[in-house]
Amino acid sequence: MNAKFAKGEIDYTRDFIRDVPKSDLHVHLDGSIRLETLIDLAKSRRVSLPSFTVEGLRELVFKDQYQSLKEYLYGFAFTGSVMQDAEALERVAYEFAWDNINEGTVYVEVRFAPQLHVNDNMNMQDVLVAINNGLARAKQEYNLRPEVMNDDKPPFEYGLIVCAMRKFAPEFSSYYRKLYDVHPYSHNRELFPVASLELARGTVRIRDSLGLPIVGFDLAGEEAGYPAEHHQEAFDFAHRHFLKKTVHAGEAFGPESIFQAITDLKADRIGHGYYLFDHENITNHAIGDPSQYVQNLAQYIADRRITIEVCLTSNMQTNPKITDLKNHSFRMMRMNRLSTTICTDNRTVSNTSMTDELFLAATTFKLDRMELKNTVIYGFKRSFFPGSYIEKRNYVRNIIDHYEKAEKKHFGSFEPKH
Description:
Blueprint: E1 5-6, E2 9-10, H1 14-19, E3 22-28, H2 35-44, H3 54-60, H4 69-73, H5 76-82, H6 86-101, E4 105-112, H7 124-143, H8 146-149, E5 157-165, H9 174-182, H10 188-210, E6 214-220, H11 232-240, E7 244-249, H12 255-263, E8 269-272, H13 290-303, E9 307-310, H14 312-318, H15 330-335, E10 340-342, H16 354-364, H17 369-381, H18 389-411
Parallel strand pairs: 3-4, 4-5, 5-6, 6-7, 7-8, 8-9, 9-10
Antiparallel strand pairs: 1-2
Helix pairs in contact: 6-7, 10-11, 17-18
């Protein structure tokens, strides 16, 4: 497909999207493992898989389309099973970094739930150090390349985001099993905030003692019936210790979940936010006018420039009722001038990349050149960059320069409309 510009008509190419510097602020490490690596690790660690070929795993587990969120999450049981030692975690993180670098995604905030990987041989600090080692090794190798040293390509940077779980069970990991053993008479819901607070405290301690680039605290998992307010103490602790906050909300539940995330948990960003405008999904009977509530919520988010991490392919796969991507709420987010950034969610589980996601966004929603540029740059501006504010500004300026170089390479000179 050739690029063409005629009276505002834009025919983007994948080559252009691949060339522009990109960020991914919402991507799960255990959902982004190479299938070849999953097979190799499963064999060496004697983990059973439904298939030991890439083709077989694509057919049986990691599909292009899923029938439900439950089916979408099925594959995480296998990826998590092979990521239970430091060597495996470092390898997966290292390869993840290079998979991003190789398609021009030069800033990532990779998220994971450390408590899913804690076991008798590996504590929380071991988990964080192993993942950071893999990312740091890839960063060093790439940033020492001549093309990066000469500023022909932008450098690679990253941050770590730790995830607390709205809901878990003993079989999720060794850590959770022991938590149940220590509190045998506790109700399930009483243990969820206990684990979150312990995670927040451990995260801050490890960040401060080792200087790891831990930039954010997240809440993930099933929304319906497991409200964010249960984890308020953990997020208050993170907030008091200057750990930025992003929360999965509005992925599979209504607008109230998003409101709770940005008020009770003080979220700086929202993961997904798909149901933001779905007033029919409001279940709180105290809300007399659901339509007005949604309008007020969108205005509240817009005023505070709370950024929504949009995951197009993932939402299509976990919400089969979205039969046409044009109906995705990203359209309404744009109409309401919300701050949005495009993300992958899970590169392997969703069989996607940042190039794929941005290409989908640009072509499906017919983004003009300034809209696409702003969407890409928002990802860097609204990141939880691990350096100082001055360093972040300099990095963003460098990214803008490289983006404009890619534009000039593919489209020639361009005068934006004001």
